[in-house]
Design brief:
mainly alpha; Lactococcal lipoprotein; lipoprotein
């Protein structure tokens, strides 16, 4: 995030970055006016949030890169070793 802040400063933008550990909090913070924008979600997540929170007057104004996303395991070292029927958790 330091690089993002540095690039923003080059454009005369004073950027304050807040980090959240719960995916539901940034949209509430945006709706409540605690932050001016967020960049963390895909369109499906935003649409589901808006269905569940009808009073949330927020919308997508651009796209962003979602990172870090990856496949992690303590035991499996090669994706080819994942067996049919294995339990996999996918973020909303």
């Amino acid at each position: 995030m330091g690089k993002v802040k540095e690039l923003a400063k080059d454009e005369d933008i004073d950027l304050e970055i807040k980090q959240f550990s719960d995916y539901n909090v940034p949209n509430k913070a945006l709706s409540d006016g605690d932050i001016d924008m967020n960049a963390f979600q895909h369109f499906a997540f935003l649409n589901e949030y808006k269905k569940a929170h009808k009073d949330a007057d927020i919308s997508a104004v651009s796209t962003t890169v979602l990172a870090p996303l990856g496949i992690y395991s303590d035991d499996i070292k090669d994706i080819k070793k994942v067996k049919n029927g294995a339990k996999v958790i996918v973020a909303k």
